[in-house]
Amino acid sequence: MDLTFESLINDNRFQIIISVILSLVVTWRAIPVIINICRIRGLMENPVKRSSHASPTPTFGGVAIFAGTLMGYMMWNFKDEDYLIHKVLAGLLILFFLGLKDDLYALAPLKKIGSQVIASLLVVVGSDLRINSFFGIFGVHELPYLVSVLFTLFIFVALINSFNLIDGIDGLAGGIGMVASGAFGLWFSLNEYWSLACLSLALSASLLGFLRYNFSKTSKIFMGDTGSLLVGYLITIFAVKFVHLNQYYNFSPGDNYVSAPVIAIAILSVPIFDTLRVFGLRTLKGKSPFHADRLHLHHLLVDNGMSHLGASFSLYAFTIVISLFTFFLRSFFTNTALSVYVIGVFGMYLLICNSLEIRRYKIRLQELKARNGESHVKISGSSTSSINPN
């Protein structure tokens, strides 16, 4: 009995299951406490013109996600990725406190980007976690060291901010993060990278616990920058590591993917596509890429009549379908052909956004006409009654 119990406790798969359960429970139980503290201390996000919520809402859900993920991961002593995980945790602390300060005082974008670069450098240079090959996409293979470092830093900063940008309606950033970290965690588990598998699946479980309250009508909480920054940071690490491992290691037949970069892009298609489109539109209008507006696809869906739940689940489905298609097509097409396919999907995404924007304009025009009509009736009625009081 003791031998069986000992072997079970030392089994990596069992350890990860326990970590996932612990992360879920810690996040689930911590959030009501955080909500009460926020209400007592007045730490609420008040709605503004472009907000998708109508009443003051606590915005420190990221604290619970941070606690749940770390407690789940630190249950066990994994040795396979110590050199990387130590740097990851250091970078995570930087971004956690950065997000906390931003949720309290609203920092300038350049200050946030500077801290993101420092946190990213810890793993890019400190642990040599780099994208140093394009796997033959459009004929590009190995990248020079400096180009590789700069390109990977750009990927980190872009993806971290992309998760911050899609955190505009209930459930979107948390759900996309849950799907992405779950997908990478499954791959790490299948290939026995237990440390990364535990961290990614612990994050996925924490996000599931958070979503229960993010979708709630009576106990709602937002993840805030505290959450979106750490989620974006960790998922970028998982994505880059996924690409990195598939370049250098030989797995059992069929387990390594020369199309890893394209698969990673497909898994993260919603934040990547949304950021490219929104930044492009803002730049064309002569505005800062970080200018707040309602150009995001999730805003377009909500403004066209979808609920937050419906819009978020539609984008979860989009992510899963595109990822599965890319995964199955990898055996039949070259990386360049797959890249063209993903670019085509992005084009379809742009067309959908454009049609939704036109429809939103028509809806607003009709609402404006209706309001003007009501005002005209009221004015006419008022004038008539003043002339003929009987």
Explain the overall architecture:
This protein is mainly α and 390 residues long. Helix content is 73%, strand content 3%. The chain has 14 helices and four strands. A hairpin with a 2-residue loop joins strand 3 and strand 4 (140-142). The chain is globular. Residues 251-255 and 382-390 have low confidence and may be disordered.
Summarize the structure.
The chain has one domain (2-364).
Large-scale geometry: globular
List the total number of helices: 14
- Beta-sheet strand percentage? under 5%
How many beta-strand segments?
4
Using only C-alpha atoms, the radius of gyration works out to 24 Å
Distance between the termini: 96 Å
Helix vs. strand class: mainly alpha
The largest sheet has its strands arranged as 1-2
What's the SSE pattern? Answer: HHEEHHHEEHHHHHHHHH
Topology:
Blueprint: H1 2-9, H2 12-41, E1 44-45, E2 57-58, H3 61-73, H4 82-105, H5 109-124, E3 133-137, E4 140-142, H6 145-165, H7 172-190, H8 194-214, H9 224-248, H10 260-267, H11 269-284, H12 297-303, H13 308-329, H14 335-387
Antiparallel strand pairs: 1-2, 3-4
